[in-house]
From TrEMBL:
Protein name from the UniProt record: Microcin C ABC transporter permease YejB
Disordered as annotated region, ranges: 51-73
Biased composition, class Polar residues, residue ranges: 59-73
Topology relative to the membrane: Multi-pass membrane protein
CDD domains named among the record's database cross-references: TM_PBP2
């Protein structure tokens, strides 16, 4: 197992380089980079980027110069070429793309992610600022989906074809078909002062007076704010995990070793939890890394927007729109690395649950 772990860890290096290189290449062809953002703002067509950039005041009322025919930037006509070069140097675009990529990777390998282009704050501090929302949503969605879905999936497998199985399957399929953001809007209309009841808050993770509340009220206030976003986000994860667990258990229950165990006089619980459970849960565990990563980042953008939660999903979206490349590439690097490491951890959990699995004898 030691050799397998080493091989997987070494494989992370070229995988990360490939992910970052492909993303960096795509960005090179994407129009509207940070320099264009500043130029558009100066021409009155942007989104006030110069107010957000460090030293942005120096870019106001720039002297006009002869139109730089060699400039590849839209909106650069009539501006002093030295001013354009100053912008390029500030954003690091005075270097060729290859050099920029290797410098970025060298910094990332040392976990130096630099500073945001448009906010006077380091990328790490910016991510830390948004983490509480994403952690709150991610952890609770993951726990709810497994705590509810696994027992429900087992119950559906044991009672396959019964009335309970049929009507719960109908509910699950309908829940899976409803987009999370649409269900979130429905919850707002019903319970957040939209048209009917005003029961739950619609902004933030905690109330403004959170620090003044006693500890037990802080807990209540925290979950009071999380209730609607969690309900909106948990539909798809709940349905997927439930059906995956059910199908996995049905497949194992029909195998010969279960018939043999029953013939030996073992009770249904002994067969189910002593023999079937360990084998059936392997496929559920296989989906854990993807569920773990996606619960923190993927699919939460619309929910964060609807419920006014400033998390990593919204941060990533705004960074792409504003072409804040340090934030874009840093979040991509961090979550890709997390995904690869968690995938390795998942394989190790495989061997812990079922010692018959030996990755040493297989190709990586």
């Amino acid at each position: 197992m030691g050799a397998y772990i080493v091989r997987r860890l070494l494989l992370i290096i070229p995988t990360m380089i490939g992910i970052m290189a492909l993303s960096f290449l795509v960005v090179q062809f994407a129009p509207g980079g940070p320099v264009e953002q500043i130029l558009a703002d100066l021409s009155g067509q942007g989104n006030s980027a110069t107010e957000r950039i460090s030293g942005g005041g120096d870019f106001q009322n720039q002297p006009a110069g002869g139109a730089d025919a060699s400039s590849s930037y839209r909106g650069a006509q009539g501006l002093d070429p030295d001013f354009i070069k100053k912008l390029e140097k500030q954003f690091g675009f005075d270097k060729p793309p290859t050099e920029r990529f290797f410098l970025m990777m060298w910094d990332f390998m040392r976990f130096d992610f630099g500073e945001s282009f448009f906010r006077d704050i380091s990328v790490i501090d910016l991510i830390k600022e948004k983490l509480p929302v994403s952690i709150s949503l991610g952890i609770w969605i993951l726990l709810l989906s497994y705590i509810i879905s696994v027992p429900l999936g087992i119950k559906k497998a044991v009672t396959d074809g019964s009335r309970f199985d049929i009507w719960t399957s109908g509910v699950i399929i309908i829940a899976y078909a409803i987009p999370g953001f649409l269900f979130g809007i429905l919850l707002i209309v019903l319970f957040a002062g939209g048209s009917f009841f005003d029961v739950f808050p619609l902004r933030g993770l905690v109330s403004e007076n959170f620090s003044d509340l006693p500890w037990w009220k802080k807990i209540l206030d925290y979950f009071w704010h999380l209730t609607l976003p969690l309900l909106a986000l948990s539909l798809a994860a709940f349905a997927t995990t439930t059906l995956l667990t059910k199908n996995s258990f049905i497949d194992e229950i029909r195998k010969q070793y279960v018939t043999t165990a029953r013939a030996k006089g073992l009770t249904e619980n002994q067969v189910l939890y002593g023999h079937v459970f360990r084998n059936a849960m392997l496929i559920v565990i296989a989906g854990f890394p993807a569920a773990f990563i996606s619960s923190f980042f993927s699919g939460s953008l619309l929910i964060e927007t609807i419920f006014n939660l400033d998390g990593l999903g919204l941060l990533g979206y705004k960074s792409v729109i504003n072409r804040d490349y340090p934030v874009v590439f840093a979040t991509l690097f961090i979550f890709s690395l997390m995904g690869l490491v968690v995938g390795l951890v998942s394989d190790l959990i495989y061997t812990w649950i079922d010692p018959r699995i030996d990755f040493e004898r297989r190709d990586v």
